[in-house]
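Provenance

Sequences were taken from public entries as deposited. Structures were produced by running a predictor on each sequence independently, with no templates supplied. The record for DMSO reductase from Mesorhizobium helmanticense is shown for reference.
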Amino acid sequence: MHPAFSVVFFTTATGAGYGLLALLGVLAGVGAIPPDFWLGFIGLGLALGLIAAGLLSSTGHLGRPERAWRAFSQWRSSWLSREGVASVVTFVPAGLFGIGWVLLGRTDGWVAIAGLLAAVGAVVTVCTTSMIYASLKPIAQWHSRYTLPGYLIFSAMTGSVLLNALLQGFAVGSNILLAVCLTLLGWGWKLATWRHNDRLEIPTTANTATGLAGGTVRSLEWPHTEENYLLKEMGFRIARKHAAKLRRITQLLAFALPVLLLAIVLALPWQAAAVLSVLAAAAQFAGMLVERWLFFAEAKHTVTLYYGR
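Predicted structure for DMSO reductase:
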């Protein structure tokens, strides 16, 4: 699949934003995070800012972005529409949670309930995003048991590393253990996903697609004389050596480097720990951009069989 940067940024930014929002909603709601004004203002601002930036960037891949609102009407049958509805609905409890925390200085009572509802909305929205891809049967790399859990794990992982940077920056604690455990879990899940995809044997061939048994079916004439939309969007190909290099970059930036930096944080004073925590979050975000790019670039649509690929 063609890895448009608008969609790559969308899945990365919203995943991190919803992960951070869910953790803030749960931890503040149970009293694990103090109702500090600047922590709430910057934390919720960062979470909602990432979500909004990601949602806006996703319209950049549309031929007619001004018609994006029409997608909301198809929620009965479309995971894309359900994602849009869930993302908008989540802003309601998130806004109430922000008002209670930032303006009223409290995270208990109805504010805690709003935070928990925002966390639920964040999880539901991430699930609907993942199902946009997991429901596509023509793309075997996405239509697997690894896609939905992967989205949830990566969202929680990036959100926890961002939250740790915030807590360290305001010197109100840390969640290093959670961030490290989720990062290691994400690393293992990504390796398992790559292994599964590399071993995939696609049952559909040109023979099965045409119903012609025996021998090898091949085209005498190409359907088009030049590159068309289907080949551009569905037939994108990446060289194996480039994919291997990008996989190593993903592992370094998204997983190995954040774990190393967070481990070093434990032995440093507050100021240095805060700086390294921010660097860990920045490195992981960059690494997840590469991982999302690979997620699209390595996917193969069965329509390319009709073009001899």
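The chain has ten helices and no strands.
The mean pLDDT is 88.
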